[in-house]
Amino acid sequence: MKARIAFSLLTLFLVLAGLNPAQAEEKQSFQQWLEHYRAWDRLEKEYAQESAADTPEAVLKRAQVYLNLNSPAKALEIIEMTPAFTGKDEADRLWLGGRAHRGLGDLTKAVLWYTQATKFLSDDEIKARFKGEPDLAVIWHDVWIKMYWAWLANHTLSRDSQKEALNMIMVVGRKVWENDFWNRVYSLMNPNMAPDGKAPAPGQADPAASLVQSADTQRIARALAAVSLEKFEEATGYISTLSNDTVRAFWTSILYFLNSGNTPKNLEVFLKDNYLKAHAFWAGNILAPYSKSRSEWFLGNPDSAAWTKFRNNILTMAPAEAEKAIDNELGSMLISEQTATLLRNFKLALSLSNGNRQVAATTWDSIDKTTLPICLRLAGVLAFKDDLNKILPEKPAEAFALYPVLAALSGAAGIDVHPETEAPFWTAAPADQLQALSAGQYPLDRLLLMAWWQQRFAAEPSVGLAKRVAYLFDDSSFGIRGLIFLADDAVKAKNLQLGAFYLNRIDEPALPPELRMAWLDIKTRLELDAGHQAQALETYQAMTKTGEPIPVMTRLRMALLYQQRREYETAQQELLTMWDQRATMTTALQAETLFWLGEGEQALRNPDKALDYYLKLAWQYPQENIWCLTAMYRASLIYEKRGKYETAKRLLGTVVRNASIKEQRVAAQARIDAIDKKMGEENGGGESTLVYPF
Asked: Is this model's pTM higher than 0.85 or not?
């Protein structure tokens, strides 16, 4: 009987627990149990201790566990140390490797690994896997187009293998997402495969032919040669004679940047006439890597006194005399090859800027163009309509960084580098046509895509778009803004590791002032949230030295940190600065500022000043309930201490009536009760507490 009752109770318990007796008997393995509770770290140890730990199944399970632990580097270590498998196991290994690279932020390698995995999968399996991986469609697009831009700048022996990788990724893209983009780029990359056997026709006539005359191109070349010698006044003279107002404004902005490192303040001149690419060039600032230093654009070492003296001496001579002096130096047997190279480059710059095309052409054909400063490279290309390939650096990474700058500036000077696949630089089109131009007609055009995404980001910024911006345009201020947006979002969400990842991808010393301020602000908040107060103070001091406006919330947090560290005077200075800027703050923040000012004066043992802040807050911001009532409570304590019991009780009475938090009401009532005892029963009816001394 007792056994039947016990069994019935056990059955009832199992039913209530959502199990039946049969299920209860099926005990999970320890590994299954760990997986159910997501104890990934312990699960990996279990897998590693298995006797068959080197089998494909065990290796893949261990790698997957580390991905679940958000440790992609460890997962990749396991995957890369394992010899290649066969069949589906190899597809799984490569796929996990792609996910690990993606977790490490290397999208290019991720896509290459995913692509290799497709070799071991059927078409149906490929589509199923790709659709199961989040955001892979946009990643595939962005990686391919960034690799395409790198391929344009690559003129080394690896160019053919890079083209092969592009084709492999494109084939997978067309197979999984057969859309307009993949079909369009396929026809652009394979013009002979177009339905009619011809290359796609350009979308429109080149407007640069009329906007930038041939004589204008030569003037720009002479200006750039003069700038390479830091002769900005002479360069400005050439630019001032350009025939078109907008082209003149653009090149004037280039001279301004090369002289100061600053971008033009007014970009409306480009929007007014619908020159979308010219506006995108400056709005996204593809010259951002040179904001801190433009030394690569100029001839010689700007910091060398000897070089400056020699250059200035030559520049005072008449053109023919100057060229003769350089030739005499070149004829010396005592100069080094490095000095000889510098002199030949000097001769080119001088002859180009003076308009001596014959000497310039002879010199251009005889020198190593990759040793030229950027201004002089571009000047030669424009003057002699030469190929950009001849002036690119030998190192692929350097060529990739410089190529979009040279291509854009060539277009701005009237020579478009890729008329078959990119819109002319001086394309005039209304902003509402940006999407059609960048996504449909010219999907490979870097500046048009930047212009379209700038428009989208300004209208509706998002994490998804910021990730794409930061990846594709990482060498522009637009890409840096994307990283700053991501870092800010991560720190606000208290995802400090991710925030630090984004911040560390930014070259902080090279940032322009306004972006550097944003970087320092996020870093300060990250360090505060991480509990690194000393580092936060150091970063905040760097913020104050910039002279840029400090975000009020960051200033408030630092003021509270100073109070916490008992540096009350410093805290009050920060709070008073906030109060001076109260017109830009919400009423809630204004009320909070007054409250902390009161608290600071209390800590400094200035109860009168504290009382002023508390009472002003309670009177001026009654709608800010929490701050108002807390200030009234603090003021009541001061009055109570001074024996002003009626005033204290009136303040506390308001707290009792209006407080939405029970603890506040209870505390206020407790103070009222304590005051009543101090006053005595005879004064409990509200009679005057005035005491006559005689």
From this structure: no
